[in-house]
Specification:
The chain folds into two domains: 3-86 and 167-335, Bira Bifunctional Protein, Domain 2 (BirA Bifunctional Protein, domain 2), CATH 3.30.930.10; 361-456, Anticodon-binding domain (Rossmann fold, 3-Layer(aba) Sandwich). Helix content is 32%, strand content 28%. The protein has helices at 17-33, 55-74, 90-96, 98-101, 169-173, 176-183, 228-246, 293-302, 327-338, 373-389, 401-410, 421-426, 447-455; strands spanning 4-6, 37-39, 51-53, 79-82, 87-88, 103-108, 115-117, 142-145, 149-151, 161-164, 189-198, 213-223, 253-257, 269-277, 280-291, 319-326, 339-344, 347-352, 363-367, 393-395, 415-419, 428-433, 439-443. The strands form six sheets. An eight-stranded mixed sheet has the order 1-13-14-15-16-12-11-4. Residues 1-19 have low confidence and may be disordered. The structure holds glycyl-adenosine-5'-phosphate. Glycyl-adenosine-5'-phosphate binds at residues 167, 169, 199, 201, 210-211, 214, 216, 218, 283-286, 322, 324, 326, 328-329.
């Protein structure tokens, strides 16, 4: 069961940190070793707050994003998908309030000059905040705007300033009118977008949890003001539906009602969906009732009519419910809940118990013996036929069968298909299940159908 808790400014939730950190180390190490996630710019010593997804990481991430898109955009008649530019007119962020208000409190150490987020540093008994690195006194707190500034074109002056978007939502609000004019939707309807967002976080931390470049999957669901409570509840349930679809267990997700003083400047109600990460219970996604704040602000800023009316009705600015999902946090929650250590056949093993629908490799195909050309040829034939039907299939003929199983377990491959001498006789193969290690013989011709049914969301 998930629970609803009430947050106040001082609330901190910790799980066993020693165990948690140990688990994080194992996850980070597996991600690097097996090609899921690498430190950004690693060969140059790394760039703080950036991570690169490797071949298996990008496949896992795409599977999560595709699940979201299918569930919330393609799967519904009241949703429209867009892909807006990351660079936008600076007027967008002036109107939305981000230029003046999108900031975190920053403190600087008076001695070593390192900078920290003031709200993440404990206040000592003497009422003073000390530097976590050198222990010296920290200076007074000031607001630090988190938007990345850049310049458009060849001139670098105030007139060419632009920002990398700090949330994908901005691109949705400025396209409200376009979608209205092209499709004439009736309220309620939503616009969804998946894409990059950038924040100059003062203290990026916890692997891909808090980074400076990340991805969001966001929906602005436009409604009549009178229906906000009902629609808020619908989206609240939809968030859990999405988690179930990607394999995040309900028991590890907790709803937290955010108090007014902790809410973003635009929100009248916010629920944070928190997850029990190995380093503590922290925000996974957010659900906010942004009222008509954004469309009204953009109407004022742009001078355009951002209104809605049914026939004979006086026009009004729609209100909006915003479910906002962090892609990278979803990836981390999926990895953390899938990471499993057990013993199989008397041997210790590590495996990712990923839902087949999100697993980066659905099945690995291998010949029992690498040095038997007839087995290799048959296995290649089966592999190619299967890959045509299900693209996320891997060929593996390195090492002995035991080693191949362990390698596939570690990356979360649900099934391993072995082609042996019986295959040459009767066209059957063995299919080994990742979680139980059990094998069954099935006809090679049935593999695509068998796996397709099991990987359906
Ligand atoms: N449009 C609303 C919005 O952006 P937010 O709570 O600031 O709200 C939404 O961000 C989600 O984006 C978060 O719940 C989280 O999943 C993700 N997110 C925010 N900042 C992030 C960061 N620095 N690194 C990784 N993910 C982040």
């Amino acid at each position: 069961m998930f629970c609803l808790a009430v947050k106040n400014k001082k609330s901190v939730y910790y799980v066993d940190m020693e165990q948690g950190n140990d688990l994080m180390e194992k996850i980070v190490s597996l991600c690097k070793r097996r090609g899921f996630i690498y430190q950004g710019s690693e060969i140059y010593g790394g760039l703080a707050g950036t991570w690169d997804y490797g071949p298996l990481g990008v496949a896992l991430k795409n599977n999560i994003k595709n699940t979201w898109w299918r569930l919330f955009v393609e799967g519904r008649d009241d949703m429209y998908g867009i892909d807006a530019a990351i660079l936008m007119s600076p007027k967008v962020w002036e109107a939305s309030g981000h230029v003046s208000g999108f900031s975190d409190p920053l403190v600087e150490c008076e001695k070593c000059k390192r900078r920290f987020r003031a709200d993440q540093i404990e206040v000592g008994e003497n009422g003073i905040q000390s530097c976590p690195d050198c222990g010296a006194k920290l200076g007074a707190s000031r607001q630090f705007n988190m938007m990345f500034k850049t310049h458009i074109g060849a001139t670098e002056d105030e007139s060419s300033v632009s920002y990398l978007r700090p949330e994908t939502a901005g691109g949705i609000f400025v396209n409200f009118k376009n979608v209205m004019d092209s499709f004439h939707p009736k309220l309620p309807f939503g616009i969804g977008q998946v894409g990059k967002a950038f924040r100059n976080e003062i203290a990026p931390r916890d692997f891909i949890f808090r980074v400076r470049e990340f991805e969001q999957m966001e929906i602005e669901y436009f409604i009549r003001p009178s229906e906000w409570e009902a629609k808020f509840e619908e989206w609240r349930a939809a968030v859990h539906e999405f988690n179930a679809a990607i394999g995040i267990p309900k028991a590890q997700v907790h709803e937290l009602e955010v108090l007014q003083e902790d809410r973003a400047f635009y929100s009248k109600r916010t629920i944070d969906f928190e997850f029990d990460f190995p380093f503590g219970r922290k925000e996974l996604y957010g659900l906010a009732y942004r009222t008509d704040y954004d469309l009204s602000a953009h109407e004022k800023g742009s001078g355009q009519h951002l209104r809605y009316s049914d026939e004979g009705e006086e026009s009004f600015v729609p209100h909006v419910i915003e479910p906002s999902f962090g892609v990278d946090r979803a990836v981390l929650a999926v990895l953390a809940s899938a990471y499993t250590e057990d013993e199989l056949g008397g041997e210790k093993r590590v495996y990712l118990k990923l839902k087949p629908s999100v697993a980066p490799v659905k099945a690995a195909v291998f010949p029992l013996l690498k040095n038997k050309p007839e087995l290799v040829a048959k296995a290649r034939e089966i592999y190619i036929a299967l890959k045509k039907e299900i693209p996320q299939i891997m060929w593996d003929d390195n090492g002995n069968i035991g080693k191949r199983y362990r390698r596939q377990d570690e990356i979360g491959t649900p099934w391993c298909v072995t082609v042996d001498f019986d295959t040459l006789e009767n066209g059957t193969v063995t299919v080994r299940d990742r979680d139980t290690g059990q094998q069954e013989r099935v006809s090679a011709a049935e593999l695509a159908k068998l796996f397709s049914e099991k990987i359906k969301v």
